[in-house]
Amino acid sequence: MPLIASLLASLPLAGSAPAPDLAALAGGLGYRVTVVDNRPTTCPPPPADPAAAPVPAGAPTPPPPPRRCMIADIDIDTPAGIVVPAGLEIRTSLIGSVLALDSDDFTSRTVNGDVTVFAVRPGRTLAPGRHYRLRLTTTVPFFSRSFVMPNAALAAPGMAPVVIAATRPGTDAATGLETQPYVAPMTDEPRLATADAVDRNVWLTPARAFARYAARGDAARPDIAILPAPAQVERPDGAPLDLTRGVRVTLRGVTRAAIAPALDGLTRAGVGSGAVPLSIAVGNAALPAEGYRLTVDARGIAIAAHDAAGASYALRSLAQQAAHEGRRMKPLTIVDAPRLGYRGLHIDIARNFHGRVEILRIIDQMAAIKLNTLHLHLADDEGWRMQIAALPELTQVGAYRCLDLDDRACLQPQLGADPARGAPTNGYLTESDYLAILAAAKARQITVVPSFDMPGHSRAAIKAMEARYRRLAAAGRIAEAERYRLVEPADTTRYLSIQLYDDNTLNVCIPQTYRFLDTVVAAMARLHAKAGVPLRLYHIGADETAGAWRDSPACRAEAARTGTPIAHLGARFVERVAAMLAARGIRAGAWSDGLTHADADKLPAQMQSYVWGGLFGPGVAEAHAHANRGWPVILSIPDVTYLDMPQAVSPDEPGATWATREIDLFRLYAFMPGNLPANGAVVTDILNRPGTIADPVPLAPGHHVAGIQGQLWSEMVRRDSQVEYMLFPRLFALAERGWSTPAWEPAYTPGASYSYGDARVDSAALLAGWRDFAGRVAERLTALEGDGIIYRLAPPGARIVAGRLEANSELPGTAIDYRPAGGAWTRYTGPVAVGGATELRTVTHDGRRVSRTITVVPARAAWQ
Fold first, then answer.
1. What are the catalytic residues (predicted)?
2. What CA–CA distance (Å, rounded) separates 162 from 72?
3. Does 752 share its domain with 804?
4. Which DSSP string do the residues of 331-379 spell out, in sequence order?
């Protein structure tokens, strides 16, 4: 084509419209979400559950559950001068289901899970430079701005989807935490704090926080700063020991390599090599496992321990106390051992990925507070995060989310994750990553428990194996393609998981499922063996299995052959997998609901049950029933130990709220693992109502729980900084409850119930214990800062009375700044006259970070 003709051909014809530019539209589109009402007077009926069993003819119709819903607005402003393409869709992640959409311009549909599409109605187009509003009624109240997921996208026929720039999260320069500029502030407490009239939750406003902190009392600087608290402490008379001279270590029964990280911890506390004798002797049979005796006097330091773990824990205690006393230690004798043998932390890296570097940081912090088990949740519906060399599609496809909806090259964009392939929320652990994690954990006496949740929560695995099937089938290798295919094509069952997936459950009646699982376990066992830490415990998952398999030919045949109801085939899966693991010398663990219908006689004697029923639900009965079977029971109670729950009832605190509206540091500290019903004396239910916790299944004599575990699920945790914000300092309270028996916990009495305020739990002793604990936590925060941990700074409590500002903090010694709105910050040193609305924040010891800013106004309304 001649040059002039080519140039002319490239010009638009006279009167023709410019071509749509989806990227430019996504870059300039205004997008803002406003939570309008969490307690509408009426709610539309929920969609039908495809898995619900039909009600038999003549049977009474059960009463419908109480309806709750939420109204929110999505306000959209199209940029001027940019053509909006026909067939435009907005794709976003939405917690809950749309019950109604009030819009003349858009329709809605759920794709799968939380992926929701708002499509421009057929025959309509959006004009440039115009404002549009979508009013949604959904099934889930949004009690926090964090419920609104980021990274909504635009899509149109023939165009690659693009993330709407206005929906990308930001970063707060002062706090270092994720911000949500696309979500309007939530300020209307009467309409937004609760879902109905029986809900007694209220926002933790500055005035309420002030009253809370004042009621708990002021903590003095503690004499003993060790976290968790030692079992026995004595302070003999004598001259102090000057550790600024450093220590000369001698070892018996243990190598330096076996306790090297703990020795490094002593160095980081300022105690280096030198002249003071420090003898460490391991192998003392008079001390229990992980136990130690630590003696400090003017002559030097002596540590006796049962094992390397005990020696390490003694060194951790020594490092904390030495730092606390400025390395000039008064005489001290500690005899110590843990209350519970299993003290764990569960980290979900499946929903949103958190990689090797962050896991290693957490392992180091766990060791410092004597936690000994890391439960790694490596796969779920939204991601498969562990390299399995024999099945490369698991990570090639299952470790990545993108904007496609067909799940062929990557997974659907669930949970508002950044869809870029290199985004931090995407990715997986390589074999070398996992080996490094195992090595770091081994050096710190921490056991790593891998978990790939099955048979539910397995969408990532299913879609990855479908990609494998397509690849091999296209090459004509049908038998090989079928080998790991995890679906039964003839299965026509319709079901919906609690997270609204209709395709996330493995078929438990086909051999491919067990072949797949055995291959995964074999790969993990090989890595553990290579690291010198044999795989002894594997967590199956087995929770929240939807009503799958009802119309599976394979499952119907198995049910007929074995006489097992189809509804109980999930239990048979647990029994079969536990036996497979036992054949490899591996114990099985599972979430407690997955063991409900399992036959205890067909399970290993040491089946490990992770009880996640609520305190005001089935948790107490499950824990006691499973312990009475002789199983090790690990308390994973969601309304106390789920660290993805908010740390305060506030629209500005991130976290899920399905189990509780708040797990603050005090609530977790006050937990009584040795007397579960007694918790009724100190905690309220999810609606903040006092109640009673009964003991319907008393513990049999000689039976008890084996451990405690904190859980950090990552649906709303997209950044490593958010991992640390949710864990710390709450992890200190978890460590305290796993290690130490509090004086205020009453001895367990079989069958006894406790109601809120029960005097058998000594509230004065509890508050005294809290003040001691709070003082020790405050001392520990400087070490976190030195390690670069982004722990949560609780905003201050504050009130203005008669023109004077009064402020306090959750933990002693926390610096507080104040200013008139928009003015200069001033350090708070005591009550001060102010002219009106005042902003406050707390500040880290090193001054590098601050809490979120809160505003206090002169009290005038009861709900302030």
1. 544 (proton donor)
2. 23
3. no
4. PEEEEE--S-SEEEEEEE-SSS---HHHHHHHHHHHHHTT--EEEEEEE
* Helix, strand or coil, per DSSP, at residue 56: coil
Give per-residue burial for 560-597: e unless 16+ CB within 10 Å, then b: eeeebebeebbbbbbbebbebbbeeebbbbbbbbbbbb
203 in a domain, yes or no?
Answer: no
Same domain, 721 and 676: yes
* High-pLDDT (> 70) share of the chain, %: 95
275 contacts 365 by C-beta, under 8 angstroms = no
Residue pair 435/409 in contact (Cβ under 8 Å)? The answer is no
Whether the upstream peptide bond of residue 831 has omega within 30° of 0, thus cis, is no
Long-range contacts of 305-308 (CB under 8 A, 24+ apart): 305/254, 305/280, 305/281, 306/282, 307/282, 307/283, 308/254, 308/258, 308/259, 308/282, 308/445
The DSSP letter of residue 429 is B
Contact 54, 498 (CB under 8 A): no
When pLDDT is cut at 50, 70 and 90, the band that residue 340 belongs to is very high
Check if the beta carbon of residue 379 is closer than 8 Å to that of residue 409. no
Q: Tell me, what amino acid is at 563? A: G
Instruction: Report the number of distinct structural domains present in the chain.
Output: 4
Give the integer Cα–Cα distance in Å for 305 and 335: 10
Single residue among 281, 302, 336 that ends a domain in this structure = 336
Q: For residue 822, what pLDDT is reported?
A: 83
Return the structure tokens found at 293: 């005796």
Query: Which residues does the annotation mark as catalytic?
Result: 544
Residues 571, 702: one domain?
yes
Q: Has residue 210 been placed in a domain? A: no
- 366-369 own/partner pairs: CB under 8 Å, 24+ apart: 366/444, 366/446, 366/731, 367/261, 367/262, 367/265, 367/312, 367/316, 367/444, 367/445, 367/446, 368/265, 368/316, 368/320, 368/783, 369/227, 369/228, 369/316, 369/731, 369/732, 369/735
Concatenated DSSP letters for 804-863? Answer: EEEEE-SSTT-EEEEEETTS--EE--S-EE--S-EEEEEE-TTSS-BPPPEEE----STT
CA distances in angstroms from 156 to 108, 120, 122, 586, listed in the order given: 15, 10, 13, 51
Q: Quick one: 849 and 705 in the same domain?
A: no
Q: What is the CA radius of gyration of the chain?
A: 29
Give the distance from CA 646 to its chain's centroid: 10
CATH number of the domain enclosing 144: 2.60.40.290
What are 303's strand-pairing partners? Answer: 280, 294
Whether residue 313 is found in the same domain as residue 457 = no
Pick from 506, 459, 465, 497: nearest CA to 351: 459
Q: Do residues 236 and 330 make contact, with C-beta atoms less than 8 angstroms apart?
A: no
720 touches 354 (CB < 8 A):
yes
Residues 6+ apart with CB under 8 A from 663: 639, 640, 641, 642, 643, 645, 646, 647, 730
Output DSSP code: residue 564: -
For residues 767 and 817, state if they share a domain.
no
Most confident of 59-73, 171-185, 731-745: 731-745
Kindly report the pTM of this predicted structure: 0.94
Provide the residue range defining the domain that includes 330.
232-336
Q: 490 in the Ramachandran plot: left (φ > 0), alpha (ψ -120 to 50) or beta?
A: alpha
Sheet architecture: strand order including 815-820:
826-827, 815-820, 838-843, 854-856
Q: Is residue 123 part of a domain?
A: yes
Determine, yes or no, domain membership for 124: yes
Domain end marker among 273, 301, 336: 336
CATH number at residue 819: 2.60.40.10
Which of 426, 428, 430 is CA-nearest to residue 402? 426
Q: What is the mean pLDDT of residues 55-68?
A: 60
Which residues in 407-488 belong to E strands, given as ranges?
Answer: 447-454
The verdict on 347 and 331 lying in the same domain is no
**CATH number, domain with residue 267:** 3.30.379.10
Q: Are residues 303 and 346 in the same domain?
A: no
